[in-house]
Write a sequence for this structure.
């Protein structure tokens, strides 16, 4: 599947930091991971740390699927606000989902520090009302988050203007968020894991899986065979090639990275992550080298040609969206791109086993915060392989 096009900033910035061979012979492994984006890389890291032998394969070069198109905002908030999710799946489950996502940001920071990955910055996140009609929504959401024990503040118009230099009727300031470079992070995770025995093969497409009672056989496009005790499928939005079950609705999102903004101070307080209540929502962040990344203007995914034709128009719209909030800041898009992502019925990922595919686990972090979901998936699946109990299994299960 054609998941991204245009000029993703991270791919331009980082290039191909490392290269990996393609699989040219048949092998055996304890766990075979399908997918070499951030989901597969986190999965491999956690499994290797637990002493589990792994081989990771990807049909593309590493990270060139959705990962290189990610704007790399790390937030605990789901695409569905906590009060809405609570009404849909129940308070206890909704609270657990938000708390797990918050905790996963801490885990991601700990991993980045352990492998000495420096493109990871703790941030705050500001969720603001896109208009007066959403003021009550912000206030309700604030109450639910406080009830869940999350560290949040409710800001009014004067506080928003004073602290963030723009106007909005209301906003929630969350203390826990982060910004990273998911593409480079995936490579760094793999490089660290390879030192402990992980085998990585890209340009190695799995075209068939044979499921057996005690193992799985993976067949690649170039006629190699992988014998694995378990498979972890972290193929993301290409899951339809492996599952007949429809579990995700694909969307296209658009983003641009501006030229470096030449100002003496941050554009807004602490360069916090910004996003609003619009549908689809607008989201913004700054990069290490002083660029604004602006994303949103999502569209249903029909075909890559239609998606790609909209890049120029969407970039112009996103720039106008930014200027409506910060009219005095001149931003000029330098790199523009589009990527495919997916939404589920409850905005939760699908993690764990699927009854029709024995000895196979799925790490499918669908949604706007797929990186935090991927961290959760790595933890849950590692526990499942080791035979340990994990209280979150049912929350993200296919059967929910």
């Amino acid at each position: 599947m054609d998941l991204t096009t245009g000029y993703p900033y991270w791919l331009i910035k980082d290039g191909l930091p490392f290269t990996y061979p393609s699989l040219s012979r048949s092998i055996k492994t304890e766990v075979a991971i399908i997918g070499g984006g951030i989901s597969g890389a986190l999965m491999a890291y956690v499994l290797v740390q637990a002493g589990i032998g792994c081989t990771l394969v990807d049909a593309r070069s590493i990270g060139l699927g959705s990962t290189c198109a990610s704007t790399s905002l790390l937030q605990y908030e789901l695409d569905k606000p906590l009060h809405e999710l609570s009404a849909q799946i129940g308070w206890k489950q909704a609270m657990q989902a938000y708390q797990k996502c918050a905790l996963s940001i801490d885990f991601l920071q700990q991993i980045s520090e352990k492998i000495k990955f420096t493109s990871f910055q703790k941030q705050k996140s500001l969720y603001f009302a896109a208009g007066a009609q959403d003021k009550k929504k912000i206030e309700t959401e604030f109450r639910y988050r406080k009830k869940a024990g999350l560290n949040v503040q409710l800001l009014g118009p004067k506080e928003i203007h004073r602290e963030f230099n723009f106007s909005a009727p209301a906003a929630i300031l969350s203390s826990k968020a982060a910004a990273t470079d998911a593409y480079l992070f995936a490579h760094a995770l793999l490089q660290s894991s390879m030192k402990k025995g992980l085998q990585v093969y890209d340009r190695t497409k799995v075209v068939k899986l044979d499921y057996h009672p005690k193992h799985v056989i993976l067949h690649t496009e170039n006629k190699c065979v992988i014998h694995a005790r378990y498979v972890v499928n972290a193929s993301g939005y290409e899951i339809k090639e492996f599952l007949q079950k429809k579990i995700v609705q694909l969307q296209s999102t658009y983003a641009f990275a501006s030229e470096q903004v030449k100002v003496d101070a941050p554009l807004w307080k602490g360069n916090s992550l910004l996003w609003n209540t619009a549908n689809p929502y607008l989201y913004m962040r700054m990069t290490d080298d002083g660029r604004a990344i602006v994303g949103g203007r999502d569209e249903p995914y029909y075909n890559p040609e239609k998606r790609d034709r909209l890049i120029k128009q969407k970039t112009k719209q996103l720039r106008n969206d930014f200027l409506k909030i910060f009219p005095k800041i001149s931003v000029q898009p330098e790199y523009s791109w589009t990527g495919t992502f997916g939404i589920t019925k409850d905005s939760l990922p699908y993690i764990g086993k699927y009854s029709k595919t024995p000895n196979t686990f799925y790490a499918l972090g669908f949604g706007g915060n797929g990186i935090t979901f991927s961290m959760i998936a790595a933890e849950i699946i590692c526990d499942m392989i080791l035979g340990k109990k994990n209280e979150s299994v049912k929350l993200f299960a296919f059967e929910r």
Notes: The domain at 16-69+183-247+347-396 is CATH 3.50.50.60 (FAD/NAD(P)-binding domain). The mean pLDDT is 94.
